[in-house]
Write the structure tokens for this entry.
Amino acid sequence: MARQAKIQKDRRLTKMNTNPARQERRSELKKIISSVDPSVTAEAKMEAAFALQKRPLNESKSRQTNRCPQCGRIHGYMRRFGMCRLCVRKFFTLAYLPGVVKSSW
């Protein structure tokens, strides 16, 4: 079980990263910085870079990790089910996940 502080931090990051206004502003600044258009001046790029630096670091989507909603585990996360391998195993043995078949060799 993950620490509650880590789970709460993940919820805060999810809330911040799903805000479309924040992500739109961040992408606008990045477009200005990486623009090769000659109409964008070096000063405008510098201002955009400073504005991007002032924004929260946790606003970046790459700072968020996938975490199991049941137990808070980050390792062994399975995107297909949206939870860790241990919870997937527990739920499909209880028949809560339809269509999953336990294989044996």
Remarks:
- The chain has a mean pLDDT of 88.
